[in-house]
């Protein structure tokens, strides 16, 4: 049976239209046009106002509040009663404790470094104050001796 | 680099800390030695219960009487050993180390054992002269005491620029 030319014509037309559209979208002109439209929208105070208004309306909406509360409550309830989660937490906690028991050096080092840091800070402050005290005493003596 | 010399406040604080350390050591020794003597050798800590044996073989009685000398002897020996030892070996006592002070010769080189001993004796003189030997620290440009000047030493803050006052090779 010979091919029906009326059935092939729309396929070809669609292909041509697609190709033209693709070329148009890939062209620098289309890029520039899209950029300008986006910039104009960004600059527009109206757009920002509309978005702010929509968000504010959503925030103030008792229906949304209630929906979010219900969802959170549902998720929390599911988590609270989830045996799998309880098991996971217990296992993780057990693993952590076991790891710390086997390798206590890291925690000991952390505590030691923090303690050392506190002590060093204290003595650094003490040294600074002592040095300032030395200078103050010197000034008093110079003043008392009538020297500049 | 011109060092920052240790003045009255920092040196005074260092002395206070060293005095506390020494007092703790002395108190510890005065308690530990009689306690050990009592536990290990059965020597009573109370001199009144030492016994009256004066012959040489009454070792316990002699030791018991000698225990009364532990505290004064420790006080007499610990202080010079502590100060001279630390000055000569590290250039600073623990109190000075906490305050970031270091004892050096006037040419900023480490002091040796002989200077440490000389300074300690001269320092004793400053103390015996009712502390008058410490007064020059207030007027001296390098904050030197009488014993510092005679021993040729200075006390510097070496924590401000660590490494700047390290001994030259």
Would you report the number of β strands of chain B? 3
Order of secondary-structure elements of chain B: EHHHHEHHE
Computed Rg of chain B: 21 Å
Overall geometry of chain B comes to elongated
Q: State mean pLDDT of chain B (0 to 100 scale).
A: 86
The main β sheet of chain B shows up as: 3 strands, antiparallel
β-strand percent of chain B reads 5-15%
Q: List the secondary-structure elements of chain A in sequence, H or E.
A: HHHHHH
Note the quaternary state here. Answer: heterodimer
Number of strands of chain A: 0
Strand content of chain A: under 5%
Shape estimate of chain A: extended
Provide the structure class of chain A. Answer: mainly alpha
What can you see in these coordinates?
The complex is a heterodimer of chains A (148) and B (169). Chain A has helices at residues 5-26, 28-43, 45-60, 62-81, 83-102, 105-144. Chain A is built from six helices and no strands. Chain A starts with a helix and ends with a helix. Chain B has six helices and three strands; from the N terminus they run E-H-H-H-H-E-H-H-E. The model of chain B has no long low-confidence stretch (mean pLDDT 86). Chain B is mostly helical. Chain B is elongated, with a radius of gyration of 21 Å. The A-B interface holds A 123-124, 126-127, 130-131, 133-138, 141, 145 and B 4, 6-10, 13, 98-100, 138-139, 143, 157, 159-160.
């Amino acid at each position: 049976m010979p091919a029906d030319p009326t059935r092939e014509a729309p396929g070809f037309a669609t292909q041509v239209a697609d190709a033209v559209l693709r070329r148009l979208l890939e062209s620098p002109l289309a890029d520039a046009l899209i950029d300008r439209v986006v910039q104009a929208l960004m600059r527009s105070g109206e757009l920002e106002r509309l978005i702010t208004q929509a968000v504010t309306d959503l925030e103030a909406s008792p229906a949304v509040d209630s929906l979010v509360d219900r969802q959170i409550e549902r998720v929390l309830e599911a988590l609270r009663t989830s045996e799998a989660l309880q098991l996971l937490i217990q296992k993780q906690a057990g693993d952590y404790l076991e790891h710390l028991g086997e390798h206590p050096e890291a925690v000991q080092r952390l505590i030691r470094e923090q303690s050392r840091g506190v002590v060093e800070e204290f003595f650094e402050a003490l040294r600074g104050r002592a040095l300032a005290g030395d200078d103050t005493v010197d000034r008093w003596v110079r003043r008392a001796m009538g020297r500049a | 680099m011109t060092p920052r010399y240790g003045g009255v406040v920092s040196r005074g604080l260092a002395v206070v800390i060293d005095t506390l350390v020494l007092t703790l050591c002395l108190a510890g020794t005065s308690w530990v030695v009689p306690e050990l003597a009592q536990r290990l050798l059965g020597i009573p800590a109370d001199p009144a219960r030492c016994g009256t044996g004066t012959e040489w073989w009454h070792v316990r009685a002699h030791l018991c009487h000698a225990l009364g000398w532990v505290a004064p002897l420790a006080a007499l020996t610990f202080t010079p050993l502590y100060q001279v030892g630390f000055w000569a070996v590290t250039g600073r006592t623990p109190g000075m180390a906490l305050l970031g002070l270091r004892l050096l010769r006037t040419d900023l080189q480490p002091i040796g054992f002989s200077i440490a001993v000389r300074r300690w004796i001269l320092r004793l003189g400053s103390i015996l002269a009712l502390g008058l030997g410490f007064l020059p620290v207030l007027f001296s440009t390098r904050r030197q005491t009488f014993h510092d000047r005679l021993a040729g030493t200075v006390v510097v803050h070496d924590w401000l620029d660590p490494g700047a006052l390290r001994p030259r090779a």
